[in-house]
Amino acid sequence: MANIDFEGMLMTMRLLLQSVICLALLSLLPGLALAGTRTFVLANKLARDWPRTLLHHDLACSPGEFRVGQCELLGQDGAVQPCQFAVVDRFPDGSIHHGRFSFYAALGKDATLTYTLQSSHKPTAFPAGVVTRRVGEVLEVTSTVAGVRLPAPSRHQFRTPAAAAAMLAASKGWWPKMPRKALLVREGSLVAATLPVH
Question: pTM of the prediction?
């Protein structure tokens, strides 16, 4: 009569069952798997330097490859680059089907740069370059350099046609947020000067 190792068989069955359970859980939670990585190359074939320019890149994805809010762009040096991803449409599982990402890049004469778009559970956050906030009936739009005050979105209905003077002003004012540089001519010489902030 053969000796049967029931303890070994039980251990093997336990490991097999744990593996099946893990696979089943992963299939139920597709957002946990990060599959997306795309590398693309910018190559300057023209005999000129390209200054920092806003670039747009259209992307067609596979199901589950990239998800909204879980992408980041790596530059040639491996550092995360600020970019914006606009979703055109999605797959039934919520992953991105078609999208466009936009970013800034400068490319020297005959240079080549490699970028990588990759999935990330916690992509790096960058501060907003333009901020809007409502202050009463005014909408303020500001950047690090300037700001403008506009009438806040609202609806006005007049019983009879109103005169143009009765309409809201298109702008409630603007302001620079730092001194502006100007060139002044003084006694026949160009002199750099700073204009006061109002």
Answer: 0.54
CATH 2.60.40.1180 domain locations along the chain: 33-119
**Residue 102 to residue 106: CA distance in whole angstroms:** 13
pLDDT tens-digit map of 75-97: 999 999 998 888 999 999 999 99
The Cα 157–Cα 166 span in angstroms is 12
Domain 33-119, CATH among 2.20.28.20, 2.30.40.10, 1.10.1040.10, 2.60.40.1180: 2.60.40.1180
Secondary-structure breakdown of the chain: helix, strand, coil percentages, each rounded to the nearest 5: 15, 45, 40
Q: How far apart are CA 44 and CA 75, in angstroms?
A: 16
What six digits make up the tokens of 90? Answer: 């999605």
| 97-111 pLDDT per residue, tens | 999 988 888 888 888
